[in-house]
Amino acid sequence: MKLEGKRAVITGGAQGLGKGFAEHILESGGQVALLDVKVSLGLETANELNAKYGQGSAIFIQCDVTDKERFKRALQVAAQVLGSYDILVNNAGISSHEDFEVVLKINLSAVISGTMFAVEHMREDKGGRGGLIINISSAAGLMPAPMEPIYAASKFGVVGFSRSIGPAVESLGVKVLCLCPSFARTPLVTVHLENEDFRNFVESMGLMEVSEVVEAFATLVEDERNASVLSITPGKKEYRFQKRKANL
Ligand SMILES: NC(=O)c1ccc[n+]([C@@H]2O[C@H](COP(=O)([O-])OP(=O)(O)OC[C@H]3O[C@@H](n4cnc5c(N)ncnc54)[C@H](O)[C@@H]3O)[C@@H](O)[C@H]2O)c1
Q1: Predicted local distance difference test score (pLDDT) of residue 205
Q2: CATH classification code of 7-239
Q3: Is the pLDDT reported for residue 18 higher than 90?
Q4: Does the structure show a pLDDT above 90 at 242?
Q5: Percent of the chain with pLDDT over 70
Q6: In 10 A of CB 192, how many CB atoms?
Q7: Atom of ligand 1 nearest to the CA of 208
Q8: Catalytic site residue 85?
Q9: Which residue, 20, 129, 154, 165, has most beta carbons within 10 Å?
Q10: Ligand 1 site, residue 162, Cβ cutoff 6 A
């Protein structure tokens, strides 16, 4: 998809990868709505982006994506303010929480509800204009992560859901894509670096800058292959699960 003139909603867009994806869309001539629980940071980010890319290019909407009604309402507000939206990036995520169900709610359930709401908005058979849904999973959605089993469960879920729902909504004019980054330098990772075991693990895998993940995001959006899963690790991006016959 060419991003010029396109309008995107990005959950967890106040910082980190979400902010990086927003900058890419704005640089390409689009507009963004950032949804996040962090109100002052979200407003600050939207102000920074408006100053850089022009007033009205970014809006912030306070939203906890685990609250389905508020998430639905936030998407409606984004559609009203932007005129519509063509892209939803389900990016909000956390790495760990004392209650494992919170991790599943943010990282998996909210990706599913966001996808369902966006499909309703975009579906061409009901007057929508089609669109792209991009779900942010992780390398921990492709291989075991013994240090973070609940996170891995949520991210494997995002991969399985995206590969399954993509073909199911294609006839409605909607495509679903999935991005699986390994470690990138964002607060999600850097706050845990004082833990020596974690730091050693991150060093063994390599730590990407946000820009490398954003570049993979740009490839995914440009290629627009429905139900595709793009893995990005330091210096290497690769489509996974390429379609093969009778590969059950
Ligand atoms: N940074 C990495 O190494 C890495 C690697 C693989 C996948 N990811 C995934 O990328 C996505 C973005 O991660 P990041 O590294 O930018 O993290 P981050 O912590 O820097 O940013 C995540 C954002 O999500 C927001 N958020 C959290 N819970 C929310 C909720 N309930 N409702 C709305 N917003 C909420 C946070 O406030 C924050 O602004 C996540 O899904 C994460 O799992 C990150």
Answers
A1: 94
A2: 3.40.50.720
A3: yes
A4: no
A5: 98
A6: 17
A7: 3
A8: no
A9: 154
A10: no
Q: How far is the CA of 241 from the centre of ligand 1 (A)?
A: 25
- 75, 106, 158, 186: which to mutate for ligand 1, most atoms within 8 A of CB? 186
Q: How far apart are CA 228 and CA 177, in angstroms?
A: 5
Residue nearest to atom 38 of ligand 1 (CA): 12
Over residues 194-217, the mean pLDDT reads 96
* Dihedral Cα 241, 137, 190, 12, nearest 10 deg: 150
pLDDT at site 97: 86
**pLDDT score, position 244:** 55
173 CB-side CA count, 13 A:
15
Residue with tokens 């063509």: 86
- Long-range CB contact pairs, 183-189, < 8 A, 24+: 183/139, 183/207, 183/208, 184/16, 184/17, 184/208, 184/209, 184/210, 184/212, 184/213, 185/209, 185/210, 186/15, 186/16, 186/17, 186/210, 187/15, 187/16, 188/16, 188/93, 188/94, 188/95, 189/95
Tell me the percentage of the chain whose pLDDT exceeds 90: 96
40 lines ligand 1 (CB under 6 A): no
- What is the pLDDT at residue 245? 53
Average pLDDT over residues 164-172: 98
| Separation CA 125–CA 171 (nearest Å) | 9
Identify any residues that bridge with 238 across adjacent strands, giving them in sequence order.
231
